[in-house]
Amino acid sequence: MRTVELAIDGRPVAVPEGTTILAACRAMEIEIPTLCYLETLEPANVCRLCVVEVEGSRVLVPSCSRKVEPRMAVRTASERVRHSRRMVLEFLASSVDLTSASADVHRWIEEYGARPERHGPKSPPRDRDRAHPGHHEPPLPSRATVDQAPKTDNDLYVRDYKKCILCYRCVEACGAGAQNTFAIGVAGRGFDARISTEYARPLPESACVYCGNCIGVCPTGALAGRSEYDMRQAGAWDESKQKVTDTICPYCGVGCTLTLHVQENRIVKVTSPPDHDVARGHLCIKGRFGWQFVHGGVT
Question: Which of 4, 28, 128 is nearest to 77 (CA)?
């Protein structure tokens, strides 16, 4: 494979042809914040948190999808880059509940000096279903009205759209990225954009197969397993008390690796390692949710 030579923050580096700027930066141990990017999914280029400055380029470029080029000069922490990332974080945090997001998100907000409060208070909660009787997924006049009650219309997982940043991860995982069910997509445009089922059907009436791969890729907690959600609501969820053990799924011969999250001698969640050759972090409904038999059928 051919090698491409470039400079990142003034440091020369040689990487294989076809490498993204993000991968090259990570190889040099340069942190680039990302939200919509995930190694196991096709880059969506929507969060724009990973942007970097490329010499000669009129605009900042998304490092997660832009491939390296010979003699390219990249700046990852210029004032222009930092300003852009600060604005992205401010806009997100001013309109979306990021309390359940990863610790990295909260660290980035502090690191980049983001002040979401300067954009004014958030809108009061509003349940779209109650606001529009007889409509399951009514259109939204603005992103502010996405602040609504969590949807608990099934026994396996909960959708809390006030935490949704429209990163497209769940859409990609439900589609060509993993499951190929295509039960959900992004409906509407601009401020009206939202995650929706086909023709806005209620989730139990949609093509959803409840694999939970959307949960596995969600970066903000907008999608969560029902067991985790219920424990968090009760104040019982405590990751410091959880033990993690890898095992092989017992349901079929594919050989998916399950990561069991155990708290007080009970399985509370099941995930899968993203670097596993078989599943690549994705599971079916049995692997992700079918562990209740370990506790005698008691959830």
Answer: 28
Quote the DSSP letter at residue 159. E
All CATH 2.20.25.90 domain ranges in the chain, comma separated: 238-299
CB-CB contact of 128 with 138 (8 Å): yes
In the block, residue with structure tokens 């983001």: 114
Q: Cα–Cα distance between 98 and 49 in angstroms, integer?
A: 15
pLDDT at 145 over 80: no
235-293 pLDDT tens trace:
999 999 999 999 999 999 999 999 999 999 999 999 999 988 888 899 999 999 999 88
Whether residue 201 contacts residue 208, with contact meaning beta carbons closer than 8 Å, is answered with no
Residue 78 tokens, joined: 């210029």
pTM for this model (two decimals): 0.84
Whether the predicted pLDDT of 51 surpasses 90? yes
Pick the CATH number of 238-299 from 3.40.50.150, 2.40.50.140, 2.20.25.90, 3.40.630.30: 2.20.25.90
- DSSP collapsed to 3 states, 104-123: HHHHHHHHCCCCHHHHCCCC
